[in-house]
Amino acid sequence: MEDVSKPVDVALIGGGIMSATLGSLLRQLEPTWTITILEKLGDVALESSNAWNNAGTGHSALCELNYTPERPDGTIDVSQAVKVNEQFQVTRQYWSYLVDEGMLPQPRKFINPVPHLSFVWGEENVDYLRRRYEALKDHPLFRGMEFSDDATVIRGWAPLLIPGRRRDEPIAATRIVAGTDVDFGSLTRLLLDGLVESGASLKLEHRVTSLKKRDGLWHIGIRHDVGGTPLELTARFVFVGAGGAALHLLQKSGIKEIRGYGGFPISGQFLRTDEPAIVAQHKAKVYGKAAVGSPPMSVPHLDTRVVDGTASLLFGPYAGFTPKFLKTGSWWDLFGSIRAHNLVTMIGAGLTNLSLVGYLVGEVLASSTKRHRALQQFAPKAKKGDWRLITAGQRVQIMKRDAAGKPVIQFGTEVVSSADGSIAGLLGASPGASTAVPIMLDVLAKCFPDRLASWTPKLTKMVPSYGALLGDDEAKAAATLARTAKALDIPA
């Protein structure tokens, strides 16, 4: 075995947006630290960070109705929407800093202005959307939200939504013009290119085979998939940002904090069209309301996507099932993740989430006609031949025990780190990439508490709202939104 005897300061496992973001932050905070990025595929950003493997919404809860549930008393709970929006504003501030400093090129390479709409039909849903609008319209982070139940107005916002719909059907929509579409694949490549230019080492087609801590250092066994050459890298700090593979790798590490965690893979599918005449009629991300009893991941949406400067439309998601944890993973991924310490958790979480199981079974068995009917609820005149089914990224839902010891499925992302802070990994999915910066700031706080004080001046320069909430200060929120919009060349 070839030994890489000199330890690196940081090893980033996985060439996606999370590793790229953490590496970028650390390069700003500690310019002299050595960084190595390990990616098992032939290029970076080929799994969940790839533009066609995610919805690219730039999640800011402007249109995603699952973030604003209705309480039993009929009021709308906006707390999660505000939290997600705050997180995305942190991400936007860091991107703006990189653009202003010349470390990211002109923003159109990764972010484009696309209005965000919520759209519903049926009297109860119209009433819900009106109440949601009233609850959010005056919040500093949701300024500019518009509401209409007029078909003529809505058609002006998103022409595909109206033709072919019954005139007497109650409908309503909200719109925020300042929404965005983000190409996280392009952004990942730009960030990693910058890291490599500043001295980081990127090793493609290098698969991690073992991960153990000895003598204060992490020993990472690696196999080069092309030549088959094994080697060992040592690192003072390890971040596992490997998407669906993170669970397996953290299990390999042996840290006690991963005990009890399980994962369940869900495959995403979308209908896609590139027909110019259709794409030209819809420049928006339009989110609907999930059916009663459906999980949050099932929220339907008709999205404009801008990838490499070309616009397309996606509709979905439709869920599928495969035991793989990555699109390029193994058919044994799910079974290989089962341990004695997580088996009861996984069974218990499944039994208490039978609606999710039923949803997945229904999605797997759904015909192309059923999928097209779902599309026609948004675009009634959509023709089947204009759309094709594509398979998007794999997401692995977290299964764990809550504070009361009850097995649960966690919808969202979660940082798992060792007690000594020498290793951390990210589990879960959505809103994921859009909140990459605040999630990685959480990693820094958990893993480098002794350095946080000295880093704070630089962190505050990169993210001026660091340590505070924009929503608590209307003037500061308005100024920050205007500043980042100008830097990123998007509407304020």
Write the layout of secondary structure elements.
Elements: E1 2-13, H1 17-29, E2 35-39, H2 79-100, E3 111-113, E4 116-121, H3 123-136, E5 146-148, H4 151-157, E6 171-176, E7 180-182, H5 184-197, E8 201-204, E9 206-214, E10 217-224, E11 230-240, H6 246-253, E12 262-273, H7 276-279, E13 285-287, E14 301-307, E15 310-320, H8 333-336, H9 340-351, H10 354-365, H11 368-376, E16 388-401, E17 407-410, E18 413-417, E19 423-428, H12 436-447, H13 452-462, H14 474-488
Parallel strand pairs: 1-2, 1-11, 2-8, 4-13, 11-19
Antiparallel strand pairs: 3-7, 4-6, 5-6, 9-10, 10-11, 12-15, 12-16, 13-14, 14-15, 16-17, 18-19
Question: Can you describe this structure?
Answer:
This protein is an alpha+beta fold and 492 residues long. It has a single domain, classed as FAD/NAD(P)-binding domain, CATH 3.50.50. The protein has 14 helices and 19 strands. The protein has helices at residues 17-29, 79-100, 123-136, 151-157, 184-197, 246-253, 276-279, 333-336, 340-351, 354-365, 368-376, 436-447, 452-462, 474-488, and strands at 2-13, 35-39, 111-113, 116-121, 146-148, 171-176, 180-182, 201-204, 206-214, 217-224, 230-240, 262-273, 285-287, 301-307, 310-320, 388-401, 407-410, 413-417, 423-428. The strands form three sheets. It has a nine-stranded mixed sheet, with helices on both faces. Strands 1, 2, 8, 9, 10, 11, 18 and 19 form an eight-stranded mixed sheet that branches. The chain has a two-stranded antiparallel ribbon with strand order 3-7. Strand 1, helix 1 and strand 2 form a beta-alpha-beta unit. The radius of gyration is 22 Å and the shape is globular. The protein starts with a strand and ends with a helix. The mean pLDDT is 91. Pathway: Carbohydrate metabolism; tricarboxylic acid cycle; oxaloacetate from (S)-malate (quinone route): step 1/1. GO terms for molecular function: L-malate dehydrogenase (quinone) activity. Its EC number is 1.1.5.4. It is an enzyme of class 1 (oxidoreductase). It catalyses: (S)-malate + a quinone = a quinol + oxaloacetate.
